Amino acid sequence: MLRRFCDGLSRRNALRIGLAAAPGFSLTLNELLSRQASGAESGSANGRDNVSLIILFLKGGLSTIDTLDMKPQAPIEFRGDFDPIATNVAGIEICSHLPRLARQADKLALLRNFTHTDSNHGPADHWMLTGYAPRAGFNPNLKPNNQYPSLGSIVSRTLGPRGSVPPYVCLPRMHSSCGPSYLGPTAAPFVVEADPNAPDFSVPDLLPPITVDSSRLDSRRELLTTVDRFTRSGEAKANAAALSTSTFRENAFSLMVSPQTKAAFDIASEPDALRQEYGRHSLGQSCLMARRLVEAGVRCVTIDHTNWDTHYDNFNVLKNDLLPHLDSGLTTLVRDLHDRGLNERTLLVVMGEFGRTPRVNKDAGRDHWGPSNCILLSGGGVRGGTVVGETNARGEKPVGETTGPADLAATMFHCLGIDPEHEFHTPEGRPVKVTNNGRVIRELLV
Fold first, then answer.
1. What percent of the chain has pLDDT over 70?
2. Contact 284, 325 (CB under 8 A)
3. What's the CATH code of the domain at 414?
4. Which residues span the domain enclosing 181?
5. Which residues contact residue 126 at a Cβ distance below 8 angstroms, ignoring those fewer than 6 apart?
């Protein structure tokens, strides 16, 4: 059954293979190489700039009251249909439909006192993915719609690329709030507009399909050389940028056939048993691709997974569709990072734009709820087996000290070695901090 967001967008977005979901804000290969040549803006704070970031964004809003912050003693209209189970950490319980994740709780931290004041998809998305609430005049329908740079764009600008891989990748598509704002196209993500679970998955502008052999690449190179000779004979000859474009294009051809690039994006080389463990679905294979990318040196990977907007039939949709995929994909990602020794240099953050209403609605669903949410973190300096904060007996709001998007952003940047007080300057010269005066949540950290 095709489910839709409350704004009318279908869950089964058509995914086409390629790059550049948003013209001017995602990168062609030439632009990527040009950006790498230009260097990064230093904002390192604590010598931890070897850490990468994976953001698993559950677009629509995970019902955390049914999964990570359950209220089994609340009245039935609040607690819902699910029961909690014990995890491998004494005193921590999560949903019984996440049994594999429960066995990895010693590697996880749960931030249960998280809150913000916007329960609308577009503005809340922006807040979570940038650390800044949008200002008046925000248009959620723009693609991208950033008034402030996304978390990944800040990582890209401050730390720059490692080697020949891009610093910031979005998959299987680019969320509209993952753009660079005033940082400009050079801090935009490299977008994989394709489902890693597709049998013929490839990124043709970066990785030629297996059927394209080197002789065909050589032919394409020769054709471009002929076109270049023709254009240089006319008005393009006067264009001083032509030389640099030609140079980056030549580098692009080299990158396309490099073993390092093929290794990063060739998900088909993974053992079938591991792919099955992640789950042969978009979320599972996106998690596997994220692991491959950080292993290859990508600094930030954002996975945009939809549709968690469970206004209707919340419990059946979670039980039979969303949670099994999350349980296989997320759990295997956590285990795989640890088994490969990548956990200390990979911070994993799982979040949506908000939680869901504590009270179940008339359609057996839950609606948008900014006042109460729960964020899951793992690795990258986060203390496993940790719960920070709590909500009241019905999951309506946090009790005591609260945390919010600016604090989460400050904590992520701290773990990556980025100074949360670091300032960028807009084209008009206005200084803007990378976080909106957020505090590092020390209780989460080792």
1. 77
2. yes
3. 3.40.720.10
4. 29-208+263-444
5. 132, 133, 134, 138, 140, 145, 146, 147, 148, 177
